[in-house]
Design goal:
There is one protein chain. By secondary structure, the chain is α/β, with parallel strands linked by helices. Helices cover 38% and strands 21% of the residues. It contains 21 helices and 23 strands. The strands form six sheets. It has a five-stranded mixed barrel. A five-stranded parallel sheet has the order 14-17-20-13-21. The protein has a two-stranded parallel ribbon with strand order 1-2. A hairpin with a 2-residue loop joins strand 18 (448-453) and strand 19. Helix 3 (43-49) crosses helix 4 (51-59), helix 4 packs across helix 5 and helix 18 packs antiparallel against helix 19.
Length: 663
């Protein structure tokens, strides 16, 4: 048996010296011998080098992963002589005083699984499908970190000496018994004969300690069906793996499934709880959002815009009609939702101060005006999204909280942290908890959440789009400010780039049009235009288009666009309106973001006057009294015009006259 282990160790060390000599040399030249060093290995390379041994690693990881670590030490010894000679020659020739290479005690091989193996349900199951049959197999799990515990120090091993045969041996902690190190029962040595001693001496001064952290990962709600409850599993990180992920991160974890006993409490049944011991952890936040779009799909987008070269707004409206098609009209809302999902370009100045590129949208409306429909449709369009309500969220609320789990304080991520890099849809926005109201300001503007709870002090990323919906407090009063009508504070409302008010006022003509549309949807013969629209811009194509224009275009403002935005901002500052709380520098930033988003929507890399004026019209729609448009109207009753390009020409002339800009 020992000969087999030595043979496997030799094969693994040969593999490391052949494929990973650069990593080994880097470790040898590192100065601190007390650190734990990772050595990253692609499992596909092991398969190519020795397929039977790779199979053994896959199905007996508890035996072969420690062997791999020992092989790394053996590979260091092989590389040491060669590296030392090179170091001596370089130091002699160049007169450098670099530290000599040294063999490191703590090197851990981290096995990374990529490619087709991630699609194997037996080796990469979803967290909800992890069962007893997966125990003792090298598994890979995908999920989102929802809790992260503090970093602890645990004892890694104890060394004992047998009082009878005087031989020394090491005892390691047992995860099953919560990392306690059991006292040895008998002497493990069997050669030349069984010792059978039960008396041992603990050797002091040889204590080895490890960094230790527990996190909890939860399967993504994006891959679950309706009504399915996302499952979670605790993950143990040790040594170099600690503190590399935080709450809200998407991760791929490779490791071994085991179990640990629940705490030993009087009159409480003692159960085995599943736990995942990580060997390798990879953050996939950026990788997940960077999804490749086929060239033929991009060509389809280019052909679409070439067809509408002379009537670009007609082409834009064709895309907007595909937004929440079951809701009739609401042109202003559909335009606002699209611009919010696309967003602008993040700006970082010389001092490192960031101006967010993500836009935020708030819908304030009477019941039955389609707010929740837009929230759900927007969530489908985003690559990463979380839908919640102000009160219906977890104990972490919308931001983050500290929870006590097994006697230890851990951070639990809320909706905004879990939606980092995506979209957070919040229904009943005005019913937020008090601590959420205090912290959401920073989350929306600075896109971070600073935490100082239960001794846990950190900063989490919330680079997310916030799409909120709320009902007015009682009957909406147009004569009162928005904060009075919604119970939301002025500073919080100012965080939203667009706030649209949807009032269900009595309008017989509009009611007739809407009822005809609903009845038409029930008749198959009259539904051909909707079928054509679905074929041209189905949900998958719409999602790909939004993702492509966000990643490909980084629009810059033209002189004409700068002039229009600047004049409008000056006009707003010069007049007193009920929106004085929003007429700040934030409004100027919102105008730039919306103009950039519209340029992206129009498949351009330059912000033109058209984009700037469209952004102004969106901002004007947020106000009950307009500074430059004669009649703003109710966003609920806004509809698609037959000739949008001609309609825009009229609006442009009117706006330029009010801004005193020559056409």
């Amino acid at each position: 048996m020992e000969d087999d282990d030595d043979g496997s160790k030799k094969t693994l060390s040969d593999f490391l010296t052949e494929y990973h000599s650069d990593q080994l040399q880097s470790i040898l030249h590192s100065s601190d011998h007390r650190l734990h060093y990772p050595l990253y290995v692609d499992f596909a390379e092991v398969m190519e080098h020795d397929s039977p041994l790779a199979h053994e690693i896959l199905f007996e990881p508890t035996k072969y992963l420690p062997l791999f670590d020992e092989a790394a030490k053996l590979a260091q010894e092989i590389m040491y002589e060669k590296t030392k000679k090179i170091w001596e020659n370089e130091s002699y020739k160049e007169g450098l005083e670099r530290p000599p290479p040294t063999i490191k005690e703590f090197v851990h091989v981290r096995i990374e699984i990529r490619g087709p193996m991630l699609d194997n349900p037996e080796l990469c199951p979803s967290i909800g499908r992890v069962r007893v049959k997966h125990r003792g197999v090298l598994l890979t799990l995908k999920g989102t970190v929802i809790r992260s515990g503090s970093i602890k120090m645990i004892e890694g091993e104890r060394e004992y000496e047998c009082r009878k045969c005087k031989k020394r041996f090491k005892v390691h902690p047992e995860l099953e018994s919560r990392n306690s190190i059991p006292k040895p029962i008998f002497c493990p040595f069997q050669k030349p004969k069984f010792c059978e001693s039960t008396s041992f001496q603990l050797l002091e001064g040889n204590k080895v300690c490890h960094d230790y952290q527990e996190i909890k990962i939860q399967e993504s709600t994006q891959v679950l069906g309706v009504g399915a409850i996302p499952r979670s599993i605790p993950v143990i990180l040790q040594d170099d793996l600690v503190d590399i992920v935080k709450a809200g991160d998407d991760v791929i974890v490779t490791g071994v499934l085991t179990a640990k006993w629940s705490p030993d409490l009087k009159d409480v049944r003692c159960d085995l709880e599943p736990v995942f011991v990580a060997n390798y952890v990879r953050r996939i936040n950026e990788i997940k959002l960077d999804i490749e779009i086929p060239d033929d799909v991009i060509q389809k987008f280019e052909n679409f815009w070439s067809d509408f070269k002379d009537t670009p707004l007609k082409g834009r409206n064709a895309i907007l009609r595909a937004i929440c098609p079951q809701v009739y009209g609401l042109f202003t809302v559909k335009l606002a939702v699209t611009l919010t999902l696309i967003g602008g370009v993040q700006h970082v100045d010389g001092s490192g101060t960031k101006v967010r590129g993500e836009s935020h949208l708030l819908l304030v409306g009477d019941p039955g005006t389609g707010k929740s429909q837009f929230l759900k449709f927007a969530a489908k369009l985003s690559k990463r999204s979380v839908i919640t309500t102000g009160l219906g969220s977890t104990s972490a609320g919308l931001t983050v909280t500290a929870v006590k789990d097994g006697g230890e304080w851990m951070l639990e991520a809320g909706a905004l942290v879990l939606a980092d890099g995506g979209l957070c849809c919040i229904d009943e926005f005005d019913s937020m908890r008090e601590h959420d109201r205090a912290t959401i300001h920073e989350a929306m503007e600075q896109q971070t959440i600073s935490i100082a709870k239960a001794g846990l002090v950190t900063t989490l990323s919330t680079k997310t789009i916030v799409f909120g919906a709320t009902n007015p407090k009682g009957q909406y009063d147009p004569n009162q400010s928005l904060s009075v009508n919604t119970t939301l504070s002025g500073p919080l409302i100012s965080r939203f780039d667009i706030v649209l008010v949807l009032l269900d006022t009595k309008n017989p003509e509009w009611d007739k049009v809407v009822s005809d549309h609903i009845l038409d949807q029930a008749e198959s013969e009259k539904n051909k235009c909707h079928e054509d629209l679905d074929k041209m811009w189905p949900l998958s194509t719409l999602r790909s288009y939004i993702h492509f224009v966000k990643g490909y275009f980084r629009p810059t403002l033209s002189k004409e666009a700068e002039n229009v935005i600047s004049r409008y901002y000056q006009l707003q500052r010069s007049i007193a309106t009920e929106n004085a709380a929003r007429t700040t520098v934030r409004m100027l930033e919102s105008l730039i973001r919306l103009a950039q988003a519209h340029a992206r929507l129009m498949f351009r890399n330059e912000v033109t006057r058209l984009d700037a004026i469209t952004a102004i019209l969106c901002i004007e729609s947020s106000m009950t009294t307009s500074a430059i448009v004669d009649s703003v109207g109710n966003a609920l009753h806004s509809n698609f015009t037959h000739d949008p390009d001609q309609e825009y020409a009229k609006q442009e002339k009117q706006i330029l006259e009010k801004l005193k800009i020559s056409g």
